[in-house]
């Protein structure tokens, strides 16, 4: 008996993402594919092109339309895409890219995401890009997982000027966050958990020093400012005052901190 051939899947070119092919594409055992969605991992398929013609994907039509009202309207409605079984997603900075669409495919098939980059800032960028694409495509369910993913990155990568003993820099939680992250997140709908986690990361700096990292963005982007004030209000609801010292619990690390210290 000959050797078993691996599926011919090329993530950067034309890819047919059936059940086994998708498992190979994201390098996970087939047994980890979402059991509730297994009946949807079959033909018919539709083609999605992102940006240039060099990046095309063939995806289960049932799976795509089940998870997205955006794609359901496109492929099951009276649009050209429905007759051609082909949709073109133009590149859009911070939303549509090869990276974000491949991550979206992972989510649809696996209900989990694995990014290639090891750089914390890049992983946060990829996450925000993904949730913005999911929002555009009316795909829900990943919000809490992605917010928790970003929170774990922030906790694992604090400002190096902080230590475990006496020094905690005001930007400890925001060390891996960038201005671009803040701006991109403002395009998410109000109450989105990824928006909330970025605002929560700035609570410590806001309460401890008037020159916290994103003070400029707070004024320039009212939606971020509103999110931050909401997170501050929530944090202060648990404020403890002992012998004239006001202590709050940081919403990211859970550390007890003094205001303006």
From TrEMBL:
Residues 42-117 form the BTB domain. CDD domains: BTB_POZ_ZBTB_KLHL-like. PROSITE patterns: BTB. It comes from the Eukaryota. PANTHER family: BTB DOMAIN-CONTAINING PROTEIN-RELATED. This is BTB domain-containing protein. It comes from Penicillium salamii. The lineage of its organism: Eukaryota, Fungi, Dikarya, Ascomycota, Pezizomycotina.
């Amino acid at each position: 008996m000959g050797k078993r051939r691996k599926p011919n899947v090329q993530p950067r070119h034309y890819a047919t993402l059936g059940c086994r092919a998708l498992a190979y594409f994201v390098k996970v055992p087939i047994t980890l594919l979402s059991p509730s969605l297994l009946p949807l991992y079959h033909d018919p398929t539709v083609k999605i092109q992102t940006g240039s013609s060099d990046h095309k994907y063939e995806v289960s039509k049932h799976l795509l339309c089940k998870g997205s009202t955006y794609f359901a309207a496109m492929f099951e409605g009276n649009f050209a895409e429905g007759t051609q079984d082909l949709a073109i997603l133009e590149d859009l900075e911070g939303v549509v890219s090869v990276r974000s669409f491949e991550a979206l495919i992972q989510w649809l098939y696996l209900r989990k995401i694995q990014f290639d980059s090891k750089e914390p800032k890049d992983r946060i960028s990829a996450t925000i890009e993904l949730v913005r694409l999911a929002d555009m495509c009316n795909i829900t369910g990943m919000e809490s997982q992605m917010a928790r993913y970003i929170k774990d990155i922030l906790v694992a990568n604090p400002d190096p000027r902080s230590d475990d003993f006496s020094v905690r820099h005001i930007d400890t939680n925001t060390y891996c966050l960038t201005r671009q992250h803040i701006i991109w997140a403002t395009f998410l709908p109000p109450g989105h958990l990824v928006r909330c986690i970025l605002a929560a990361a700035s609570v410590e700096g806001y309460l401890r020093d008037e020159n916290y990292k994103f003070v400029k963005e707070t004024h320039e982007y009212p939606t971020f400012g509103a999110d931050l004030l909401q997170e501050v209000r929530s944090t202060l609801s648990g404020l403890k005052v002992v012998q004239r010292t006001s202590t709050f619990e940081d919403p990211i690390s859970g550390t007890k901190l003094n205001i303006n210290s």
